[in-house]
Amino acid sequence: MNRDDFLAGVEEAAVAGRAHRVKTRDLPDTVGYVDCGDDRCAALAAEVEAVGGEKHLVANDAQARDTLAKLLAEIKPAVAFCWQHPLLDRLRVTETLRSHNIACHDFDSLAGLDDHARRAAMLSSDVGISSVDYAVAETGSLVVCSKPGQERMVSLLPPVHVALIDEAQIVPDLYDLFERLQENDSPALPSNVAFISGPSKTGDIELQLTTGVHGPGRWIVVIIRG
Amino acid sequence: MKETDYLRNEHHEFMAASDTALANPELQVILGRLGDSLGAKNQEAWAEFAEHDLVRERARAIKDETLSNLHEHLATLEASVLRRGGHVHWAGTGEEARQFILDIIEKRGATRVVKSKSMTSEEIHLNKTLEQAGIQVVETDFGEYIIQVAGHRPSHIVGPALHLSKSQVTEILSKAAGEPLPNDREALAAFARRTLRSSFAEADVGITGVNYAIAETGSIVLVENEGNVRLTTGLPKTHIAVMGIEKVIPRLADLPYFLKILARAATGQKMSCYTSLITGARQEDEIDGPDEFHLIILDNGRSRILSGPLRESLFCIRCGACLNACPIYRTVGGHAYGGVYTGPIGAVLTPLYDGLPLNHDLPHASSLCGACQTACPVKIQIPQMLVNLRTQLTEVPGQVGRGEALSYRVWARMLRSPWWYGCATWLATRTIGRWCRKTGWLHRLPGKLHGWTKTRDFPAPAPERFRDWWHSNDAGESPTDARPVAAQERSP
């Protein structure tokens, strides 16, 4: 259908429909704001656990490195798929992977491959390691923005996803998050912003919870107090 | 009609399909659990969220405001999508939308398509068209995959395979696997994961629906729990999203109000596992994500609804809460409704989209108890809309028989005059009231009224009129009721 005819039809209907508007109230923008208390780290950790994730609340970088090393020793991945991110650099993740003899795919190693080989490499990874752009304490959501070095598939294709988070990345409520997105990223939003709130789940058989149907069945969140 | 036909047919009679559903013990067990699971989780989620009522009110106001200037918001959306290098296609009908999608796929020489669950793509019967054109379409939502293999239609907006028991799913997927699979949820999910991963590895095009489209940024929002939407929008080279015109919201700042209520209403979660905010195709240096983004904007009868009294039905955010709350849905299941959209909102939408005369039973498929409106995250006044459709039905030729029309006229005349009302109640108490004085119940009614007494008794009139009792007693005295109190239900 011609675009202008389409929109003219919608306009006519929208104007006629104003006769059937419903009664609504004026409400403040902050309606439904959830105050998560003073300890954002603890609030986020509690929500992560509530939605079926594993939380590790640590006091400093050294403990975070230690936690990651223990997790990798337990998961025993052959190949990791990683972000290239300042926090991961600060925690010297590449070094930890090398010391555990774990191969690592990341932007630098994949950018040169053709599309098919790249897809195959991503699909064969055993663990995804990322940081986040933001985390929401209210809902236990990790917010990841796509850009080179922050591949969207890191948090999705491998059966295990480990996210490393700094306290400064945590916002209390969804409204705070959208304010930040508006300030920092809009109008040029990243091509993909994903909110991750738990391991992959389905209730499609008899409404019973089954995890890991498409995305990671195991979701591990390491939170570093600032 | 074969017993299972109604699982597949696009249209059928509500009453006949309901009888089939009632006679299916396996389905009755599944439906019986629905209220205690999804329905209860929804109520708990509201109870734990102190200001839920006000957030729902706010979301409702955004929808109302947006619809009154819908053309402007759609034009803004188009400009924003184009600015980010996307393509916009305006489809007046389902036929046009199917053609747009087919053209995009064929122009790329693509043959393999992965899809995530989309009610709008069901509405336009997309899969059939693509398959006829020789394109392999794989549904990747676990529930949709199961029913695609089985050849069924979805029975619930959120849980498309909800009508199947675990052992039925095992049987269906074992056939697809070519070997017997264990009757175990994890094993069945693992089989689907393996099979669908190979589809994802090869797919050329990903097709999704749209939960919300944000006009000012040109973004679409998709909400899911499994991760298949993220795979569908992340791996193939081309992403096609299909949306009805009512899915647009003006600003990014409007989105959190909807995110706070959608998952709570659908599954009782605070947030679904994955929410994707997608703005165009991948940026130049990114190494994953699609190269192209197409947005199909579909009218398909929506602007007609927008101009009329049932405009509010366009507020629907497809959460399924009204289905879980509805005593009728929880008795007959989704397939009985015949249309793509089921439950109370389906009883409104299906007659609006597919025609009222063809779906004349649906406005009556409700006891008007109001549970749907209470559960609805955007408080759609579904009962009022069903009454409106019932009124419209009286003007459809052939819908109301002469006998029925006459009896309603007599009824209306009687209620308008105290004298006639007095006469009628006198007659009723002296005859039926006295004949049934012992039990107080009628076991069988004549003609069309038999529909009521087929499965339950009907209360008989009292043996004495209230006005007579009032005059023969002191006003201060408490009334004594001669009728047995307990309801007498007969099992069908």
How many H/I helices of chain B? 22
> Into which percentage range does the β-strand content of chain B fall?
5-15%
Count of β-strands of chain A: 12
Across the major sheet of chain A, the strand order is: 1-12-7-4-2-3
The secondary-structure element order of chain A is: HHEHEHHEHHEEEEEHEEEE
Under the CATH scheme, the architecture of chain A is: 3-Layer(aba) Sandwich
**Helical fraction of chain B:** 40-55%
Say what the CATH topology of chain A is.
Rossmann fold
Unreliable residue runs of chain A: none
Number of domains of chain A: 1
Sheet with most strands of chain B: 6 strands, parallel
Q: Multimeric state of these chains?
A: heterodimer
Sheet/helix structural class of chain B: alpha/beta
In the predicted model, the low-confidence regions of chain B spanning at least 5 consecutive residues are 482-492
Measure the end-to-end span of chain A: 56 Å
CATH class of chain A: Alpha Beta
CATH superfamily of chain A: NagB/RpiA/CoA transferase-like
Radius of gyration of chain B: 26 Å
The overall average pLDDT of chain A, rounded, is: 95
What does this 3D model show about the protein?
The complex is a heterodimer of chains A (about 230) and B (about 500). Chain A has about 230 residues and is of the alpha/beta class. Chain A has a single domain (about 35-225), classed as Rossmann fold (3-Layer(aba) Sandwich), CATH 3.40.50.10420. Chain A is about 35% helix and about 25% strand. Chain A is built from eight helices and twelve strands. With about 500 residues, chain B is an alpha/beta fold. The interface between A and B is large, with 85 and 105 residues. Strand 9 of chain A pairs antiparallel with strand 9 (about 275-280) of chain B.
